[in-house]
Amino acid sequence: MMLQVDKDLQEIASQLRPQGRTLRIAGLIALAVAVAAAATGLVLRWRHEAAVTQWTATQAVPVVSFVMPQPDGKASRLILPGDIQAWFDAPIYARVNGFLKNWYFDYGAHVKAGQLLAEIEAPDLDASFAASKARLTNSKAVVNVREAELEFAKTTYERWRNSPKGVVSVQETTAKKGDFDSAAARLNASLADVNVAQSEVDRLAALEGFKRVIAPFDGVVTERNTDIGALINAGSGVGGGTGPALFRVADVHEMRTFVQVPQRMSAGIHEGQKAGLHLPQFPDKSFEATVATTARAINQSARTLLVELHADNPNGVLQPGSYTEVHFDLPPDPNILSVPTDTLIFRQNGLEVAVIGEDDRIAVKKISIGRNLGSRIEVLSGLTPSNRVVVSPPDSLAAGDLVRIANEAAPSGKGPGSGADAEENSPSDAKTTERTR
Question: Rounded to two decimals, what is the model's pTM?
Answer without folding.
Answer: 0.60
